[in-house]
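Message: Just now I want nothing more than another pair of eyes on a protein record. I am handing you a single protein, as its sequence and its fold in token form. As I understand it, each token names a local backbone shape. Take your time, and here it is.
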Amino acid sequence: MAATENEVLLHALDHAYDATSWHGPNLRGAIRGLSHVDAAKRPGKGRHSVWELAVHCAYWKYTVRRRITGEKRGSFPLEGSNWFARDPKHGAAQWKADVALLDEVHRSLRAEIERFPERRWSEKVKGSAGGPFFEAAARCAWASGPGSLPWKIQRFSSGMFLNASADTPKLAASTSGGV
């Protein structure tokens, strides 16, 4: 029997986030072991840190879940939207809290996808210029595929900014306080 759209999305979402992935590091694996100091480093002036990218991912998982459920804006636990400034001075406890938020928002999105009615995947997302629900949900997984965010995090964290490939070394756990 063919997989349902829900099963396809859940499989992609799981492998992009925390299940073993064919394409290398998934999002959770790319940040595992980073200290708050390492996560707050910027690859260059005006570029986002790994920490900011992780919170950005949490925000967009929340946004997709909110659009699926029809929930009103403003329920994200952090003040603001899209990008959230993070700095080592925020401390290890805040880094761990932000990673826990990413985990919680991921679980919440996954639960909504599990119970989302199959017949509605082709409906257009309300309040968005984007496409159908299926496309909006799938972007959370596509954003974590080959050459995407986890790969960029891994390359930055290991000091490798260019020419990453499948043989890029695994990110090693860094200083104390890692997540």
